Amino acid sequence: MAKQIVEMEISAAKMELPDTKTVTFKWPEGYEQEFKTGQFITVYWPDTTNYKRAYSLSSCALDRGFYEVTVKRDGKMGTRIVDWAKVGDKMFVIPPVGRFLPVYEENKHLICIAGGSGVTPFRGFVREATRRGLKTRITILYSVKTTSDIIFNEEFRELEQQNPFFKFHVTCTRLGAADPWPGRRGRINAEWVKEHICDLPNTVFYACGPNELVDATEALVLEEMKVPKEQMKTEKWG
Amino acid sequence: MSNVPSDLKYAKSHEWVRVEGDVATVGISDHAQHELTDVVFVETPQAGREVKAGEACAVVESVKTASDVYSPVSGAVQEINGALSDNPALVNSDPYGAGWFYKIKLSNPAELEQLMTASEYSKQIGA
User: Fold this and answer.
1) Does A207 contact chain B (CB < 8 Å)?
2) Smallest Cα–Cα separation from A168: which of A148, A146, A183, A182?
3) What share of chain A has pLDDT > 70, as a percent?
4) For residue B72, which of A2, A70, B23, B83 sits 20 to 30 Å off, Cα-Cα?
5) Average of pLDDT values for B74-101?
6) Residue B56 parent element (H or E)
């Protein structure tokens, strides 16, 4: 069945960081759409119909009645959404698609490697697992430049409290030496990833973020750690 | 498999350069457009602008991301590809032809020696 493109109203707009905004698109009356956590929607403004951008859902499939995306000020669309999108505005939304889907099996461990705004689909992963009370282990390894760039920091910390099977780890790549950040510094490397593996055959690796990060993570997991390709899913610029 | 024409020079950041006399035409490679996916917007530099090699001077935005385009060479921008404002998808359909970004009058032709040949670039992208 063809995907139905629908005009949706923005019902909430929240700045997560000075350059990152979560926008909520309210489903119009009568709209029903089956979709999966981890998929992405494509949006465009009514006045520029040939100019579309795709964003991973930061909400999950249990969230009915709305879609949420978390957008960084990047390019013409990202700038317009972050700086100008407000409650009451309308955008066209092409329903969710994509195969970057969480494997919610009890014995599985999802290691989710993210860079920058690539963390947004993982919010949906954890949100669904937590609400359903699943025992699937989820570990996010999140690379940001500085502590000011951590999207959903408080929310992930709260989810850690609610969900004993979820862990959130951050590494900062460009912090000054004098910064008091007590956490990890430097890029994601094999040693750090290996620290979080407890049962390699039952581990599924996810990588989402800039192409460079995803390519480097693929090389690290598939080539350096010799993990079979079937155990890895990637999404470039989530 | 990405197309890497042998008569062009390439930057590590995936721009190509075609030199005719003291003027170079700049665009992004087939590999780059493939990685970006569907291009929806291109912001080119103003004609007359002086740019330095390595300077971010254009933006290419696809359905999935926005990326800076770095000038592979220094000089004054002579002409921009106006067709991209109406049809940015030319970058996908014809990256080495109708999808060119701008033409620049070279101020330091020796910089061309720092760029990669087609075979070197093919190696970089694993083509």
Assistant:
1) no
2) A183
3) 98
4) B83
5) 97
6) strand B56-62
Tokens of residue A125, six digits: 């992963």
What contacts A179, CB < 8 A, 6 or more positions away?
A: A146, A147, A172
Domains of chain A in start order, with CATH, are 6-97 (2.40.30.10), 109-236 (3.40.50.80)
The whole-angstrom separation of Cα A136 and Cα A34 is 23
State the CB neighbour count (10 A cutoff) for residue A25: 24
- Rounded CA-CA distance B83/A237 in Å is 27
Handedness of CA B33, B35, B38, B41 (dihedral sign): negative
- Report chain B residues whose CB lies below 8 A from the CB of A211: 35, 65
Which of B41, B44, B59 is the best mutation test for A, with the most CBs of A within 10 A? Answer: B41
Nearest CA in chain B to A55: B64
pLDDT of residue A16 exceeding 90, the answer is yes
Average pLDDT of chain B? 96
Cβ of B63 within 8 Å of Cβ of A210? The answer is: no
Rounded to whole angstroms, how far apart are CA atoms A135 and B121?
A: 47
State the ipTM, two decimals: 0.75
C-alpha–C-alpha distance, residues A99 and A35, integer Å: 11
pLDDT in tens, B100-125: 999 999 999 999 999 999 999 999 99
Place of tokens 């947004």: A120
Residue A238 pLDDT class (50, 70, 90 cuts): very low
Give, in words, the CATH class of B9-108. Answer: mainly beta
For residue B122, give the H/E element and its range: helix B118-125
User: DSSP class of residue B84?
Assistant: H
| Interface residue A118 vs chain B (CB under 8 A) | no
Domain boundaries, chain B: 9-108
